[in-house]
Design a protein that fits this description.
single chain, 352 residues, mainly beta, Tachylectin-2, Chain A, nine-stranded mixed β-sheet, 3 helices, globular
């Protein structure tokens, strides 16, 4: 069994844009985490200002999932030395009465580390902890291109950066087999489990990998926390097709077994969403800055318009609104926040 995904963009997109009168969100708002609780949608979104370029997380609420009221001061930002470049790309999972947030700590581009914290009110945050110390995903070679070293796993050959690099964790909202689980990673998506939601044990056998000849051929990255459906856990992820100045970030989906999260039941052959509209194409995504070095802002804008720099939509937040409907919240062009509505229809088509 598989899933057919029908998707419709909200006609009023974008639902949240930068505000030039508020410095910390004057340049970009994007990549939100969203959760629904007791009649209210809660959003944590990533924002950047024009002056310092540091990513901070801001809080917004909504009654209908469309119209949002945001606070005018960030609720979460850098504190530790490895966060001095910003706190990025939140994912939110509610377990019991607590909201668990994972995010990426950025130390100005040298190393990314996936972190965890928790809250009951989105204002007071409990201990920040590094989720995967000494985890290795790969090494950066040339700008915009990563070489994956999976076969050896020999720590003697790794640098400090290699040992610490980790990103993008989405925690399952309930125990499975008596344990808490999450999926995390970029380049590949790995599973990890915990007995206490504090210490996580990662499996170095990936659940999902890039696929030759598909939209996610070069790279994949975990999206929102998994969503339970009748057919399995829905995994929404981000994928790119190549490592060059024509790369495109698209959104994909897969189903894994309800009791065995490492068992993939189905995976889409086409992206469920890709950059198409003007608000998804009219921006300079973060990774595109390397292609703009040494040229004027006008020339860079021309390259963006002509699709000569990378393009992106990127999802960290999704909310199940009914048995087969999901609100998908995504960043468009690393500049604005948008909404798309997914309809899941069972099919007899199996796993790719």
């Amino acid at each position: 069994m598989g899933v057919k995904v029908e998707i419709e963009r909200y006609s009023g997109n974008p639902i949240l844009e930068p505000n030039p009168e508020i410095e910390w969100m004057s340049s970009k708002v994007y990549n939100p985490g969203v959760v629904f609780d007791r009649g209210v949608y809660h959003m944590l979104f990533r924002a950047r200002g024009k002056e310092d370029g540091v990513s901070r997380l801001a809080y917004a609420t909504s009654k209908n999932g469309i119209d949002w009221d945001h606070e005018y001061t960030p609720v979460f930002g850098p504190q530790k030395s490895w966060e001095n470049g910003g706190t990025e790309d939140p994912r939110i999972t509610k377990i019991g009465k607590i909201f668990y947030m994972t995010y990426t700590a950025n130390d100005n581009g040298r190393t990314a580390r996936v972190m965890q914290t928790s809250t009951s009110d989105f204002h007071i945050w409990h201990d920040r902890s590094l989720m995967f110390p000494n985890w290795h995903e790969g090494i950066w070679n040339d700008p915009g291109k990563r070489k994956i070293i999976v076969p050896t796993w020999d720590p003697s050959n790794w640098s400090e950066k290699d040992l610490n690099w980790s990103k993008s964790a989405g925690i399952f909202p309930e125990k499975i087999g008596g344990k808490y689980w999450l999926f995390f990673g970029e380049d590949r998506i790995w599973p990890a489990f915990s007995k206490d939601l504090k210490v996580w044990h990662a499996d170095r056998t990936p659940v999902l990998q890039p696929r030759n000849g598909y939209f996610d051929e070069a790279y994949i990255e975990m999206g929102p926390p998994p969503i339970r459906t009748d057919g399995g856990w829905l995994i929404i992820y981000n994928g790119i097709d190549r490592f060059d100045n024509s790369r495109v970030y698209r959104i994909g989906a897969a189903l894994v077994d309800l009791k065995n999260v490492s068992k993939v039941l189905w995976r889409c052959t086409e992206p469920i969403l890709e950059p198409e509209t003007h608000y998804e194409l009219s921006g300079v995504i973060d990774v595109a800055s390397e292609y703009g070095q040494g040229i004027s802002k006008d020339d860079l804008a021309t390259k963006v318009k002509n699709k000569q720099t990378p393009q992106a939509i990127f999802c960290c937040g999704a909310v199940k609104t009914s048995q087969n409907k999901i609100n998908l919240y995504y960043g468009a062009a690393d500049r604005v926040i948008c909404l798309a509505k997914l309809l899941l229809l069972p099919t007899t088509r199996g796993m790719v």
